[in-house]
Amino acid sequence: LDTVFATGALAGLSVLITAGPTREPLDPVRYLTNRSSGKMGYALARAAREAGARVTLVSGPTAIAPPPGVECVHVETAQQMHEAVMSRVAQAQVFVATAAVADYRPASIADQKIKKDAARRSLELERNPDILAAVAALPQRPLVVGFAAETQDLERNARAKLMKKGLDLIAANDVSGGRGFDADDNALTLLWPGGGTTLPLQSKEQLARQLVAVIADRMGEANS
Ligand code: CTP
Ligand code: CA
């Protein structure tokens, strides 16, 4: 593992990473969001930088500062994240989607605060673009790495996402019982077409370094 960092296994490469939650406004004072601290994506940005890569982080709102030497583009909504990614992905050799993107946004945004009147209300939602699938579908694409947050059937659901979106690598995360979210520690199951490995419970910083080593390995595989 140390050789990955000592030799700068990602030197000369550009890595684009999404991180954090997205925020989907409902009215001027309310929004829908996902649980995500951004820790995994920021740790990955740091590790990729330390392995010699040029790193751009497209991040939803988080409480953490971008690691040194990492360019950070701040966004709020899934649509903004989608645009920020699509306008930069042509320069990247590796794309990693760690963001907890809201799958849906309110179909309309009220321009005034919604008042409480009716005893019951329903909310119409519209699908957001799938950023990871959009990058994977590009004719000229980087190595594409996704995450999968699952509460059940971790490996089966993650492998289905890997195949369906045509990814090069997926990092599956067991989030049953709220695990993995605000924690500093996590475990990951890594799957790629024809293979896989598990990274046992450890700090997100260490986990990120191991994931970078596997990404460098997959890059080597793709170029051989
Ligand atoms: N993702 C994305 N854009 C979206 C939704 C998800 O880029 N609009 C990315 C996430 O960053 C993650 C991967 O897709 O890398 C999987 O996200 P996940 O929520 O686990 O899966 P979905 O494909 O959204 O499917 P579902 O929520 O129905 O399980
Ligand atoms: Ca989702």
Description of the molecule:
The protein is globular. The longest helix has 19 residues. The model has no long low-confidence stretch (mean pLDDT 94). It has 224 residues and is α/β, with parallel strands linked by helices. Strands 5-4-1-6-9-10-11-12 form an eight-stranded mixed β-sheet, with helices on both faces. A two-stranded antiparallel sheet has the order 2-3. Helix content is 28%, strand content 29%. Bound molecules: cytidine-5'-triphosphate and calcium ion (CA). The site of cytidine-5'-triphosphate (CTP) has 15 residues, from helix 4 and strand 9.
Number of helices: 6
Q: How would you write the strand order of the largest sheet?
A: 5-4-1-6-9-10-11-12
Percent in strands:
25-35%
Q: Provide the residue-averaged pLDDT.
A: 94
Q: Unreliable runs, pLDDT <50, ≥5 residues?
A: none
Based on helices, strands and strand pairing, what is the structural class? alpha/beta
Q: How would a crystallographer describe the biggest sheet?
A: 8 strands, mixed
Following the backbone from N to C, one meets helices and strands in this order, namely HEEEHEEHEEEHEHEEEH
Keywords:
binds calcium ion; 6 helices; 28% helix; binds cytidine-5'-triphosphate; 224 residues; alpha/beta; FMN binding; two-stranded antiparallel ribbon; eight-stranded mixed β-sheet; globular; magnesium; EC 6.3.2.5; EC 4.1.1.36
